[in-house]
Amino acid sequence: AEEAIDGFEAALAEGEDTHEYVQKAQSRLSSAIHAATRNDDGPSEDMMARIEDVEEELDTLRVRSRLDRVDVLVEEAERDIDDGERDSAIESIVEADDRLTDAKRDLEDAADSDTALGELDDATQDVDRVASMAIEAALARCDQATSADEPQAAVEAWGEAREWFLAAQDAGWDGPASV
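-> structure tokens emitted (179 positions)
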């Protein structure tokens, strides 16, 4: 199982899909549990303690890997918002929200839950902040439209605001309440 965890960490560092490694580690841990409990004469207590340590390490790594991805997505969303790339910004926010949901689920099993919980709270605040930035970008376009001196400028600003809201709708995101 530790070998699969090492593979998981390597794949994570390379930005590759880690699902296969997690499945492999869980399978090997299951086999180890079966082996540890199969024989009454064996050192099952020591084996189970070691297995639990490896399980906790895997759970913690899974949470941290999701939170690392959330950090990257938040940075991408911030950059995209600043650049006016609404579709990409909204997609990053939605994916970050999905990763947070997965991390919250994984956190229930994480060994170092206090540390991971703090990291999860920080990541949640970052996603909320960048989600608010996206809403503010759309609302700024609305303000530009209502304060425009020329009708054409107002139409263009309303169009840009509409595009921000349509990007959110197309991504299945309904604003900060869903994040």
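Residues 44-82 form the longest helix (39 residues).
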